[in-house]
Every structure is written in structure tokens, then in C-alpha cells.
TrEMBL record:
Coiled coil: none annotated. CDD domains: Cas6_I-F (cd09739). It comes from Moraxella caprae. GO terms for biological process: maintenance of CRISPR repeat elements. The lineage of its organism: Bacteria, Pseudomonadati, Pseudomonadota, Gammaproteobacteria, Moraxellales. It comes from the Bacteria. GO terms for molecular function: endonuclease activity. InterPro entries: CRISPR-assoc_prot_Csy4 (IPR013396), CRISPR-Cas6/Csy4_sf (IPR042564). This is CRISPR-associated protein Cas6/Csy4, subtype I-F/YPEST.
Length: 199
């Protein structure tokens, strides 16, 4: 397995969240291009400095991103130096390197979505074939508080609307194989959660 590490460069004019937005928008487009153009869905990411406190319900993505792939050829096709060339004042990209013996563990990175009550009720009513009133009663009894996981602000290419990509990253005991979406993370509904090395 190989990887490339991207580090945010501190900038007095642009806050880190804005750099994350610029970086991730470009990465998302690049991952969609290699998925559509080459059928590659094996490129995953991790945030080495990710922190989230359950107790305080807050966290941070940190200032580094690692992009992993099974082979050098796949990262060559992604071509991060070209894709992120416009951001050279804001990010530093290391050359492709082998993971080798660096990993001390493995993490799963997934998107966290919390649906508002109205959407939860609609989905549950459809799923269980219940009336809206019955679904509302169930959802109110079992409603979970939304988690404040770290996020990246993104803009949809199709409708230009802004949205948040909330990131949940957690350790797993052993490597797990699977596919990654065009955010470089595993889908929350996937049976097998794909993992990436962590150190």
C-alpha cells in the first residue's frame, strides 16, 4: 500500500476551515474523475491528527490528510500535485511513499449524517409502513442527539449549495477491505467498512 500526505500551511489571511474546503472540493472532484474514468474505488483517506471528544462533543480534523491506495499507479492517476496545483500557497504535498512498517493500527473514516426529525419520521414511516403519527411517536421516543463531529464545508457542483461533510474516524482491531466513495471514505451503510492504515 502507498500513500501521499497533504499538510495545511498556516495562513494569516485564510482560516484552516477555508483551506480544508478548497482542498476537499478539489480532492472530491479528482476522486470522482478517477472513479468514473478508470473505475477506481480503492483510494481512501485518513486524518492523522483527528480528535473527537464524546464527553465534550467536539473535535478537529487537524492539519494533515493522508491519501491511501493499493498501488502507486492509482495515486499516479489521481495526480494530486496537478489537481491541487492552484492551492500550492495553502497546502504542501509529499511524494508518494510506501506505507511499509509505519502503521501502528487501522482506522475507518465515514460520513456522519444526522437527519432532522421531519426526515426521520418520513423515512421511518416508509420503512415500517406506519402512519406519520405512529412514526413520530417512535422517533420522539428513540431520537438520538446529533453529534458534533468535525466537518468540511463543501459546495455541490450540481446545485452550488453548501453542505457539511461530517467526519467520524475510529480505530478498528484489524484491516478491513471494502470500497471508498468519492470523498475517499467508507459509506455509512456499507456492510464492510473499509479501513486505512494509521500512525
Amino acid at each position: 500500500m502507498v500513500y501521499q500526505e497533504i499538510t495545511l500551511i498556516p495562513n494569516d489571511d485564510i482560516p484552516p476551515y477555508a483551506i480544508w474546503s478548497k482542498l476537499y472540493n478539489q480532492l472530491h472532484i479528482a476522486l470522482a474523475d478517477v472513479a468514473n474514468g478508470h473505475g477506481i474505488n480503492t483510494i481512501g483517506v485518513a486524518f492523522p491528527d483527528y480528535r473527537y471528544s464524546e464527553q465534550h462533543d467536539k473535535g478537529t480534523l487537524g492539519s494533515r490528510l493522508r491519501v491511501f491506495a493499493p498501488s502507486r499507479d492509482e495515486l499516479d492517476k489521481l495526480d494530486l500535485p496537478l489537481r491541487l496545483s492552484r492551492l500550492s500557497d495553502y497546502v504542501h504535498i509529499k511524494a508518494i511513499a510506501d506505507v511499509g512498517e509505519r502503521a501502528t493500527g487501522y482506522v475507518v473514516v465515514e460520513r456522519y449524517r444526522h437527519y432532522d426529525l421531519g426526515k426521520q419520521v418520513e423515512r421511518f414511516a416508509d420503512f415500517k409502513n406506519l402512519t406519520v403519527e405512529q412514526a413520530l411517536e417512535h422517533c420522539l421516543a428513540h431520537k438520538k442527539k446529533a453529534k458534533n463531529y468535525p466537518f468540511v464545508r463543501l459546495k455541490s457542483e450540481t446545485n452550488q449549495r453548501q453542505y457539511h461533510l461530517h467526519v467520524r474516524q475510529y480505530t478498528v482491531a484489524k484491516p478491513q477491505t471494502g470500497v471508498f466513495n468519492t470523498y475517499g471514505i467508507t459509506n455509512i451503510n456499507d456492510e464492510t467498512k473499509a479501513s486505512v492504515p494509521h500512525w
